[in-house]
Amino acid sequence: MHGWIPVTVQAAAVLSLVLAVDWRSRRWLWRLPLIGALGLAAAGCAYWLVTDDGLSGQPPPLMLWLWIALTGAAAALLVLGWRGAAWWRRGIVLLAVPLCLLSTGLTLNSWVGYFPTVQSAWGQLTSGPLPDQSDLAAVNAIAGSGTVPGRGHVLRVAIPADSSHFKHRGELVYLPPAWFAQDPPPPLPAVMMIGGEFNTPADWLRSGGAIKAVDDFAAAHHGNAPVLVFVDSGGSFNNDTECVNGPRGNAADHLTEDVVPYLISHFGVSAEPSRWGVVGWSMGGTCAVDLTTMHPDKFSAFVDIAGDLSPNAGTRSQTINRLFGGSVDAWAAFDPSTVIARHGRYSGVSGWFAVDDSTAKSDTGGQLAAATSLCALGQTNGIDCAVISEPGQHDWPFAGRVFTHALPWLAARLSTPGVKPVPFPDTSSGATGRHAHP
């Protein structure tokens, strides 16, 4: 999705727009400024939406606004230029609108890395099979056979929301080969996987490459790896809950009161908090810190990949209104800095803060400042942590690389069988392209 396809589609979109406009008459000439103005208005509205809702900590590329403007202009051209146009020109402008819209989507995708390939996009569109996807019957058959598979298995699960009453979509569980080694299964550690602001539970599998990373890790450790649960923190694709309880739903209660007991009772994972971790990307990174520091009785380790300082749904006042119904006390209860300060000394809690090097250089969006602040406060209160920057930008490929790099450390911290203790990476030489921040 980053090769010839975007270039080809965008070239076709520009060509169709040029042919659709063409010269018609002097009267038609006067309509062109209006069409251009409507296109700019579309880009302006999109810019306001992104800014007002705090949808991005980093500025979107200029080409995204350009394609939104061209899409708006194409739609205006369709309406204002339909009457009196030749049939072939009408056909071209009908083609120009979806081509411009598709070009906008491809530009957006190149920025966030949501779909790395056409196959992953098609799989999402058609709800196609996920990597290692299996069904309960197949899992039960293998579990009772005494045969350890070469790869893990992914199951779709319907976790009841009896405690939270949070309306959520189906979620996913990855079972490593070691889970099948005995019956009942061994009490393996578990890791909760949380995606970004706009998400589906399958994002970590389709866009983040999590299954290949954990399968490769298990293969190098005699089948041993944590059980992963890919959770639904939003209930819908665009419901930004920031993993808190509030007007947008009791997302926090779902993750802690529904998901954790379900994994323990249905898959036999360890109930010890020292063997539970949370990994989150972007919004999910904020969730990872929040859940662990709020619930050290349930989680002991987190990987925060490009998260914010606190739950973020715009400005501070907008966040309080949108996520907490205007309650400052409710906001403070989910603000990691406040939570850590109020809790005081932690024991056995650790965290990996990851930021991309473009953020580390410019600190756009304050993610390096957020990670440094939270880690410093955490260390003061007994949390063992480090801030690591790696090459990349704020997109899914970066999240996938960080998960691959952090998994050995996380698995060791959660006492995964057969995994030796792993320290934070030594970045002093800079050989890996990674850098530790004090």
From TrEMBL:
Subcellular location: Secreted
GO terms of molecular function: acyltransferase activity, transferring groups other than amino-acyl groups
GO cellular component terms, semicolon-separated: extracellular region
Keyword field contains Electron transport: no
Pfam families named in the record: Esterase
Alphabetized SUPFAM superfamilies for the sequence: alpha/beta-Hydrolases
Keyword vocabulary terms for this entry: Membrane, Secreted, Transmembrane, Transmembrane helix
Protein name: Esterase
